[in-house]
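Hi R.,

Here's the chain you asked about this morning:
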Amino acid sequence: MILGEINRFSRWVHLVLAILWLWMGLVYQILYFSEINRVAWFFGIFFVIQGLLFGYFAINGAPDFKFRADTWARGVLGWLFIVYALLVYPFLATIFGHSYPEMPTFGLPCPTTIFTFGLLLWTHGKVPWYALVIPFLWSLIGVSAALGLGMWEDMGLGIAGVLGTLVLAFGQRAGTKVSGTR
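And here is the predicted structure, written out as tokens:
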């Protein structure tokens, strides 16, 4: 597949990721969280950069999202991360004593980053390394902050960040080139 030749479903997935990351950067980090923590401005800028990168992928192309028999392990791991982000995360938050609306939900940085790793594991071909940097760094920052705040459900963020990055960066099929061509 040549960069730019991407199916419609993949464009929509990248567009949804772009919107989520832009929202987390602009609305959550910069407009809301910066009132509590000044460093949130810094985080917000990087979230916006990640959102723009996913927007670029939606417009200009990137690896396709598809479940393939020869990459079933990535597909299953992706499903596990997505289910964790959407269902297990809020369940654990409730068990650990966090109630809505105070608990983090999908659309906020930690569960949405886990969800992002889940979707990226569904790509066919190599995900560019620069698309992994900000989600990986946030997974480390988010876990360190979660430990201090008692957000035990965010331990899944560290697992998704480290395992997802390792699988995406080093677990590619032999012969798959960076551009996604074969």
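One quick note: The mean pLDDT is 82.

Cheers,
M.
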